[in-house]
Design a protein that fits this description.
478 residues, mainly alpha, two-stranded antiparallel sheet, 18 helices, 2 strands
C-alpha cells in the first residue's frame, strides 16, 4: 500500500510539477544567458583542462577536483541502468528527449553552480562549503526552508542513494562472478570506510583519479561498438529521431511515454536543478564564480551526451533490447556487451559498474557531509561545533550501515522514497534559483567583460552586485 501511494505521488510530482519547473527554468536560463551552454563551450574546455594535475595545499580543492567530485556522484549506474530502462520503457525516441533535457539542464546547472560559488562560506584557508541550503538561508533569508533542504539532501544522497548504489554493485558482482551479496557488502563497507573517514581532501584526490579512468574505459567500449557497427549508425540516429515524435506501437502511451521517460531519465542522470551538484561546485578555490558554473555545465554534457549516449549506442547497435520486455537495466547492458565482445564482457562491465557505483557512493556521501556542516552556521559557537561533529560521526556510521543494508536488501521502497525526496529537492532548489538567478547573470556578464578587456584570469569583485547579502567568502578579496 505504501509503495502504491508513493508511486502515485511520484507520478504527479515528476510528470507534472517537477517537469514543468525544470523545462520552464531551463528555457528561461538558456535565453537569459544567451545560450551559455554553446557560446562558452571553448572556455569550459580551457578552464577544466588547465586544472588537470594542479597541485593543491592542505585542504584546498582545485576546480578540476571539484568537477570530479560532482561527476563521481552523478556519473553512476543511472548512466547504464537508467538508459537501458528508458529504451525498454519509452523506446529509442526517449534518448532524443534525454538529449534535449540535458541541453536545458546545462543552463540550469550553470546558474545553480555559479550561485553556489557566489554564496559559499569560508571554512579555513582556501577551503569552502556551500550549496542550495547556504544560498537559501544567507541570500533568500529563509532559514526554515534551508534547514528542510539540508535534511532532505543528506538523507537522500547520504543514505538512500548510497544504499541503491551498493545494491547495484552487489547484484552486478553476484551475476558476473557468483559472489554472495553478504561478502560483497562487507568488502564494500571496508572500502567506503577507508575513503569517507579520510575527509573531503581524500575524496577529491580519490575521485580525481577514478572518474577519468572509468569514463574513459566505458567510452572506449562504446567507440569500439560504433566502429564495429558503423554501417548501422546512420539508421540508429534516424530511429532515435523518428521514434522521438512517432514512437513504435509497442511503447505504451506513445509520444507521451517516450517524452516523459526521456526527460525523467535525463533528470535522474545529470541531476541538473536538483541542488546536488552545487554542493561540489562551492568547494572549489576559484577566482570567479563563473569558473565553476562553466565547469559543471560541461559536466552535464559529459554525463548525458557522452556516458548516457555510450550506453544507448551499445544497446541500440547490438539490437538485443525489446520494448516492454523483461530484460532491462544493468542486465540488458551486460547482455548487449556480451553479444558484441563475447562472454567475458559482462565480467568487465561488472568491474566498470563497481567503479561507477563506488564513486557515486563517495560523491553522494560528500553531499551529506556538506549539508550537515550547514547546521554549524557561518559564525559557530563551541556548542554548535560539538553538535555538528557528533552528527557527522553518526552520519558516517549511518552511511557505512546503509552500504551493507543496501548490498543485501530489496530496494523498491527505498527507490520510491528517493524519488519523492528528489522531487521535493527540485521544487525547493528551483524556487530559490529563480529568485536569485539575476546575480548569476550579472556574474556571467562581468566575467565576459573582463575576458574581452584582456584579463586572462578574471577575478570576482562582489561590488558589481546590487545586493551583497550573503556573499561572505568574497570578503577575502577586498
Amino acid at each position: 500500500m505504501l509503495n502504491n501511494v508513493l508511486e502515485f505521488t511520484n507520478n504527479i510530482l515528476w510528470n507534472y510539477i517537477v517537469l514543468i519547473l525544470l523545462i520552464g527554468s531551463g528555457i528561461i536560463f538558456t535565453l537569459k544567458t544567451k545560450f551559455v551552454q554553446i557560446r562558452m563551450l571553448k572556455e569550459m574546455f580551457r578552464i577544466i583542462f588547465s586544472g588537470v594535475g594542479q597541485k593543491t595545499k592542505g585542504k584546498e580543492i582545485s576546480a578540476f577536483q571539484a568537477f570530479c567530485v560532482s561527476a563521481a556522484s552523478h556519473v553512476g549506474v543511472g548512466n547504464i541502468a537508467g538508459v537501458a530502462i528508458a529504451i525498454v520503457t519509452g523506446g529509442p525516441g526517449s534518448i532524443f528527449w534525454m538529449w534535449v533535457m540535458s541541453f536545458l539542464g546545462c543552463a540550469i546547472s550553470f546558474v545553480e553552480c555559479t550561485l553556489a560559488q557566489i554564496y559559499k562560506l569560508p571554512r579555513g584557508r582556501k577551503q569552502f562549503y556551500g550549496g542550495p541550503a547556504y544560498y537559501i538561508k544567507n541570500a533568500l533569508k529563509k532559514p526554515v526552508l534551508a534547514n528542510l533542504f539540508a535534511i532532505l539532501i543528506s538523507i537522500t544522497f547520504g543514505l538512500i542513494y548510497v544504499s541503491v548504489q551498493a545494491n547495484t554493485i552487489a547484484q552486478s558482482v553476484k551475476t558476473a562472478f557468483g559472489i554472495n551479496t553478504v561478502i560483497s557488502g562487507l568488502l564494500l563497507v571496508i572500502f567506503v570506510s577507508l575513503v569517507i573517514f579520510g575527509g573531503i581532501t581524500r575524496i577529491a584526490k580519490f575521485t580525481e583519479k577514478l572518474v577519468p579512468l572509468m569514463a574513459g574505459l566505458y567510452l572506449l567500449a562504446a567507440l569500439i561498438t560504433v566502429i564495429i557497427y558503423r554501417d548501422k549508425v546512420p539508421a540508429m540516429f534516424w530511429l532515435i529521431i523518428h521514434d522521438a515524435f512517432s514512437p513504435q506501437a509497442a511503447v505504451g502511451g506513445g509520444f507521451g511515454t517516450a517524452f516523459i521517460t526521456g526527460v525523467r531519465r535525463g533528470l535522474f542522470s545529470n541531476e541538473a536543478g536538483e541542488g546536488s551538484i552545487p554542493n561540489a561546485a562551492a568547494t572549489a578555490s576559484s577566482s570567479h564564480p563563473v569558473n565553476q558554473g562553466l565547469i559543471h555545465t560541461f559536466g552535464v554534457y559529459v554525463d548525458t551526451w557522452l556516458i548516457c549516449s555510450a550506453t544507448a549506442f551499445i544497446i541500440l547497435l547490438s539490437n538485443q533490447y525489446t520494448i516492454g520486455g523483461e530484460l532491462t537495466g544493468v542486465s540488458l547492458a551486460q547482455y548487449s556487451l556480451a553479444n558484441i565482445f563475447g562472454h567475458y564482457a559482462p565480467h568487465i562491465l561488472s568491474i566498470l559498474i563497481f567503479l561507477f557505483a563506488f564513486s557515486s557512493i563517495v560523491g553522494n556521501y560528500y553531499y551529506g557531509e556538506v549539508n550537515i556542516s550547514f547546521f554549524k552556521g557561518h559564525k559557530s559557537n563551541i556548542s554548535q561545533i560539538k553538535i555538528t561533529r557528533n552528527l557527522m560521526k553518526f552520519f558516517r556510521f549511518g552511511v557505512v550501515i546503509m552500504v551493507f543494508v543496501g548490498s543485501i536488501a530489496e530496494l523498491k521502497l527505498i527507490w520510491n522514497c528517493a524519488d519523492l525526496f528528489m522531487g521535493l529537492l527540485c521544487i525547493i532548489n528551483i524556487f530559490a534559483i529563480l529568485q536569485l538567478c539575476k546575480y548569476a547573470f550579472i556574474a556571467l556578464e562581468d566575467y565576459i567583460l573582463k575576458k574581452k578587456n584582456g584579463i586572462k584570469v578574471p577575478v570576482f569583485d562582489k561590488n558589481v552586485m546590487p545586493d551583497k547579502t550573503g556573499m561572505f567568502a568574497w570578503e577575502l578579496n577586498e
